[in-house]
Amino acid sequence: MATVKKEFFTGTTIAIAQRLLGAYLLHSTKFGNVIGRIVETEAYLHQRDPASHAFRGKTKRNAVMFGPPGHAYVYFIYGMHYCFNVVTAPDEHGEAVLIRSLEPVRGIDAMRYFRGVESVGQLCNGPGKLAKALNLNLADNGKPLWRGPLRILRPDSFLNFAKPPRRSEIQRTTRIGISSGVDLPLRFYLKSSSHVSRTL
DNA sequence: TGCCTGATTGCCT
DNA sequence: GGCAATCAGGCAA
Fold first, then answer.
1. Which of A24, A91, A134, A170 minimizes the number of CB atoms within 10 Å of its CB?
2. Is the CB of A178 under 7 A from strand B?
């Protein structure tokens, strides 16, 4: 298992949204390490993106988005769900990448316990689902992702010589579950994956 | 202070 | 496909 370096989080938010595909998200829990392969992401920008939490400026809730890149931005939504994001862009630029789906890799029984669901295909195929499967909540907001109990692992962490996905493997579409900025093509997922929240 | 909405999910028809 | 659950943040007053 090779954790990414801090430099992994430099570049445009859109580039990082694509770079994260094929990488892994690890969380160390009381039931051991829980790991999933990232197969679906969405970019949320600062300006020109009304769907972004950062669009209306910095607040107590979204402050982490405006901090340095490579940290976790976790927020509570709909009174019952958490969503996990990777902060991108330099200080004072409120941008992040929402992780929408994972393919379960390790700690699947722990995921089942946290989710209360058996089917592997239903464990992490949605932003609220994966946060629950990895036992993520507001306590994880602001944590670094290149060291510590919550980390991003390189795409070659599990399969020998596994390379990042080719550009042709990545499908780009509009985002899901928003009411403004619906026309922006800022969602990315791996065409070959059967674990995305939904295709096209 | 009060009202409305939301980067969702799961259950019901 | 429709809709309830459930509550913190954001904005109007």
1. A91
2. yes
Rounded distance, CA A59 to CA A38, Å?
28
Give the residue among A62, A20, A22, A23 at the shortest CA–CA distance from A45: A62
**CA–CA distance, A86 with A105 (Å, rounded to integer):** 20
Integer distance in angstroms from CA A92 to C1' C12?
A: 28
One digit per residue, the tens of pLDDT, for chain A of length 200 reads 799 999 999 999 999 999 999 999 999 999 999 999 999 999 999 999 999 999 999 999 999 999 999 999 999 999 999 999 999 999 999 999 999 999 999 999 999 999 999 999 999 999 999 999 999 999 999 999 999 999 999 999 998 778 899 999 999 999 999 999 999 999 999 999 999 999 87
Report the alpha-carbon distance of residue A178 to residue A56 in Å, rounded: 15
A200 touches strand C (CB under 7 A): no
Using only C-alpha atoms, what is the Rg of chain A? 15
Q: Find which nucleotide's C1' atom is closest to A78's CA.
A: B6
